[in-house]
Design a protein that fits this description.
Bound molecules: copper (II) ion
Number of domains: 2
Number of helices: 1
Distance between the termini: 60 Å
Order of helices and strands: HEEEEEEEEEEEEEEEEE
Structural class: mainly beta
Largest sheet: 5 strands, mixed
Strand content: over 45%
CATH topology of the largest domain: Immunoglobulin-like
Radius of gyration: 20 Å
CATH architecture of the largest domain: Sandwich
Helix content: under 10%
Length: 194
């Protein structure tokens, strides 16, 4: 009897360990090129630890590099001017909200600036001096995000706690979403917006 109880307890513990989180994987369908996938908790979730990594957006060869940078909310992004001439960094809005717009300023060759992104949403970057320069920073509401494979559209998001999420696909400036349920390792294909 005692042994059975012990086995039951151990089984329960093992099961709860296995099932508490998993990798969400799948493919974004109907999109050419890279997409961004991120999860928005549907239920109240414990706040994620503040990101400590510094993320970088370069200005090099008259381009923002990378053209799409994905960071979790609360992340600090470093903007480096690697060109011989001056550049500017500004965004008119975050997530379409103009009150979050900001002009980070003008940067001479070799100069850099940093900004902490406190609001989730898409940040359309511009350089006032060069209207052809543009890029996006996607600030995600959770640490659960991925960029898809350019060709296959595959994505993997690791260590996702079990639960319900709104899975958002961002592709070339358009977003779509669907509710997904994560229970351990979970596979789901997502559709990109047209
Ligand atoms: Cu510029």
């Amino acid at each position: 009897m005692k042994k059975n109880l012990l086995i039951a307890v151990i089984s329960f513990l093992a099961l709860s360990l296995v099932a508490s989180a998993g990798t969400l994987s799948g493919s974004v369908k109907g999109a050419q090129g890279q997409s961004v996938v991120y999860l928005e908790p549907v239920q109240a979730a414990a706040p994620a630890p503040a990101p400590t990594q510094v993320y970088k957006m370069d200005q090099r060869g008259m381009k923002f590099i990378p053209s799409v940078l994905v960071v979790p909310v609360g992340a600090t992004v470093e903007f480096d001017n690697d060109d011989a001439g001056a550049h500017n960094v500004r965004w008119a809005s975050i997530g379409g909200q103009t009150r979050f717009g900001h002009n980070l300023g003008n940067f001479a060759a070799g100069q850099k600036g940093t900004w902490k992104f406190e609001h989730a949403g898409v940040v359309p970057l511009m350089c006032t001096m060069h209207p052809d320069m543009s890029a996006y920073i996607v600030v995600t509401p959770s640490p659960y995000y991925a960029q898809t494979d350019q060709i296959l559209g595959d994505f993997f998001i690791q260590n996702v706690p079990d639960g319900q999420y709104k899975a958002v696909v961002w592709h070339n400036g358009k977003t779509t979403s669907q509710v997904v349920k994560v229970a351990g390792n979970t596979k789901v294909d997502l559709a990109a917006g047209k």
